[in-house]
Automatic annotation (TrEMBL):
Lineage: Bacteria, Pseudomonadati, Campylobacterota, Epsilonproteobacteria, Campylobacterales
Functional pathway: Bacterial outer membrane biogenesis; LPS core biosynthesis
Residue numbers marked as site, Transition state stabilizer: E122, K198
Gene Ontology terms for molecular function: Kdo transferase activity; methyltransferase activity
Official protein name in the record: 3-deoxy-D-manno-octulosonic acid transferase
Length: 388
């Protein structure tokens, strides 16, 4: 092991030991009860069963979904997938692949088996993942690679470190020219701009629901504090329009707290509230979708989509392609830095501060539906990767 890699490894061990009490505590939390034991203690997380496959690593749900068109093009190959989050893991298990959680870096030298290729999506930059995979003979490829506006300063401050990390990478397929230039500034080589691979994905609904007669607003992938701003705006808007509001929180562990918030608003303003897990209909004024995998089905029956994650500075926005595909009029916040490349392809979006949501709802009446005009062809990219 090279001196820097050895020093980095020792530091990872020290951090592990320091964090051990917290890891044990968090492993009992519903959100982490599977991922933390798997990642940090290798519980039910064995090595891949074979060598010389194509290994994809993604972080969470969005990246796992983005794999679908790629995996269709490598059908028949020995495919492995690792994820970080539990939601990403559940999505990855839908594919014909061997799926694992990515272990903590300290464990990787003992866990990784030689693969033909490691394809890492977006911004999952783990030094020992790249270094160990490369040392064991895998070609390391970054696909859909990006460096967000919010994080670029941090990357440049540690350019010496990222230069070492990226020296293990054979080719980088970047989302945009801006991303390419940022990678160049970090000392990366062999960078190709391909656009965002999420544009290649097939968007579909899993169930058919009848569209409500009233104007239907869906607040999708919402985060803490966003629901309250949306509810305030909706209560104002409902005084001027016959409308109903569907809320789909981003994280299932927040279903109960969001329900309590919605109940307060329903009681205070004499609105009817329902939970989708109890009644699969849309008769109420306020509907909490407390079930996974329903968001596209909600977009399909809605007139307006308020896309969450962008009314807070620390999230970075969420994918606008799905509501645009279903013809929703899109409202989102101004903090969409992690989805900037995707929003570039979506037309007729209102970007507002949280106190302007009511105004945007009123303006929606005179605006056309959002739409996506661009597509991306993954076949030459995948062919290039497999031949590299």
């Amino acid at each position: 092991m090279k001196p820097f890699s050895l020093l980095y490894y020792i530091l990872s061990v020290v951090l592990y030991l320091v964090a051990l009490p917290l890891l044990i505590y968090l492993s009992f939390k519903q959100k982490y009860k599977e991922s933390i034991p798997a990642r940090f203690f290798l519980f039910k997380n064995p090595k891949f069963s074979s060598e010389d496959g194509i290994w994809f690593h993604v972080c969470s749900l969005g990246e796992a979904k983005a794999l679908k068109p790629i995996l269709e093009l490598v059908r028949g190959k020995d495919v492995k997938i690792t994820t970080v989050t539990h939601t990403g893991q559940l999505e990855a298990r839908k594919y014909d692949a061997e799926v694992r959680y990515l272990p903590y870096e300290m464990l990787l030298p003992f866990w990784i088996k030689k693969q033909k290729m490691l394809i890492v999506l977006e911004a999952e930059f783990w030094y020992l993942l790249f270094a160990v995979a490369n040392a064991k003979g895998a070609k390391v490829v970054l696909l859909n690679a990006r460096i967000s506006d919010k994080s670029v300063k941090k990357y440049l401050q540690f350019a010496w470190f990222y230069k070492k990390l990226l020296s293990n990478v054979e080719v980088i397929y970047a989302q945009s020219e801006v991303d390419k230039n940022r990678f160049l500034a970090l000392g990366a080589k062999n960078i190709k701009v391909i656009g965002n691979i999420k544009l290649a994905g097939t968007i579909s609904k899993t169930k058919e629901y009848e569209k409500p007669v009233q104007e239907t607003i869906v607040a999708g992938s919402t985060h803490e504090t966003e629901e309250e701003s949306i509810l305030k705006s909706f209560v104002q808007y409902k005084k001027q329009a016959d409308a109903k509001l569907i809320i789909v929180p981003r994280h299932p562990e927040r279903f109960e707290s969001v329900y309590e918030l919605m109940k307060n608003y329903a009681d205070k303003h004499s609105l009817i509230l329902s939970r989708f897990s109890e009644r699969q209909d849309f008769d109420a004024d306020l509907i909490l979708v407390d079930a996974m995998g329903e968001l596209n089905n909600m977009y399909a029956i809605s007139d307006i989509a308020i896309v969450g994650g962008a009314f807070k500075e620390d999230v970075g926005g969420h994918n606008p392609l799905e509501p645009a595909f279903f013809g929703c009029k899109i409202i989102t916040g101004k903090h969409f830095h992690d989805q900037k490349e995707l929003f570039k392809y979506v037309h007729h979006v209102q970007y507002v501060e949280r106190e302007e949501i009511h105004k945007a709802l009123l303006a929606s009446k005179d605006l056309p539906a959002s739409m996506v005009e661009e597509k991306i062809n993954l076949e030459p990219i995948v062919k290039n990767i497999l031949e590299n």
